[in-house]
Amino acid sequence: MAESEEEVDVLVQRVVKDIINAFKRNPNIDEIGVIPCPEARYNRSPIVLVENKLGVESWCVKFLLPYVHNKLLLYRQRKHWLDREALVDITCTLLLLNPDFTTAWNVRKELLQSGVLNPEKDLYLGKLALTKFPKSPETWIHRRWVLQQILRQFSAEGQTSKQQQQQGETEQADAERSQQLGDHLARTLHQEMKVCCDAACLYPSNYNAWSHRIWVLQHMAMGNVKVFHDELSSMRLWVSMHVSDHSGFHYRQFLLKELITELSQPLSSATNSPQHNSSTVPSSSPSHHSQAQANGELSGVEAAGEEERQPSFTTIIQLFCQEIELCSDLIHSFPGHETLWSHRRHVFYLWHHWRREYQHYSSNGGSELVHLNDSDPGLQTVGAQSCAGRGESVNGQGHATEAMEVDGASFPELRDSKRLKTGILLPDPPALSSEYSFVSSILDDCCNPEQRRFALAYEKWLDTVIGHQP
């Protein structure tokens, strides 16, 4: 065991060099860890590389960490000079052992801005640090900073591409460059999603990882419905395996809100369209519009708007129904988990407010968006409010919701195998009465005291919050 200061310096310098050489030998290292080993055994390096796993024997950490820490502090205090290569090696070693040392990340920011470091390499270093310290806040903060640099680079390259096109460059070359930038951004987004998922699996309720995941979507995929929908679908399995992790369900709530916001834009834009705002256009009058619909004679603009809004309306209802169904399955399969009931409460509250807003839109001139198949008997138009409340007595109390009507006709029962023109069978939308029925079924078959307590609390919430709202 090294004892003198000179021997410690020689030992630590050799360990730092061994770590850097390990990365050079295997650039695909995907995990780091500390190997319990109280004493140095044999005359060999304490750095162990097996396949893609890098391990550091614990006996040398007590020498290694103070050494690189002091070296970096002396450099920042301008008491000791280190060249750029030495700075890269020292900060890499230090952050693998202690990723919450802000000074080291700041030094790497300076190196990255000066062009010494590649942004992808810094993302790779952060990814490795998170395999050992998945909740490290400084690592997530630095990761967002690096991603911002990458996004600025994409933006600058896009501006350069436009300028070159204006100077006479062929459109084909510009399209290829844009495609490459898009593919690079998509790969970066996919890698970030994987890093966040791995960190969330390593540390329960890892809010730092989930917050970073939300930030990535907000800055790299905002408005991309497909990305958000794919995320929502891929998260079903994860939350089913982590039913007590509220952070994962909070992420699903974020995805659901963003999807509803994006899909509702074509619906609400109808009230701002010229057909609804200008009285100088003949087709904007309600009588003309209704007559044209009855005769199947919508104008080209109106028909395009109807085609755009109808799938959005259908998708929104399906999203809510699928989320409520997922909650029901998990509550039945895993009784006594408060997280599941909290998530159901949030989803139904979101549905309740979206339905009220959509009702307000329809009552102020929104067109009828969803139509049943012409071949169905008893053909009638299904209005925008697809969720008519049904009164039902629960525990001797009447819980009635307002019937939502369009042109005097309530929304028909969707369970009657009525298909839309798009060929999609709409499920039965959520309703207050169905929620009371669900709670009653849980209470009737409940053997878990925690499950019963959560069910009663949810029923009370329905009474006090939803039942008293207009």
TrEMBL record:
Record keywords, A-Z:
Prenyltransferase, Repeat, Transferase
Q: Which InterPro entries match?
A: Prenyl_trans_a (IPR002088)
Q: Name one Pfam family in it.
A: PPTA
User: Compositional bias (Low complexity) spans?
Assistant: 158-170, 273-293
Q: Where is this region: Disordered?
A: 158-180, 267-307
Q: Which SUPFAM superfamilies match?
A: Protein prenylyltransferase
Is Repeat included in the keywords of this UniProt record?
yes
Q: What GO molecular functions are on record for this protein?
A: protein prenyltransferase activity
GO cellular component terms, alphabetically, are: cytoplasm
The Swiss-Prot or TrEMBL record describes its family as follows: Belongs to the protein prenyltransferase subunit alpha family.
What's the protein here called?
Answer: Protein prenyltransferase alpha subunit repeat containing 1
Record organism: Sparus aurata
Gene name, per UniProt, is: PTAR1
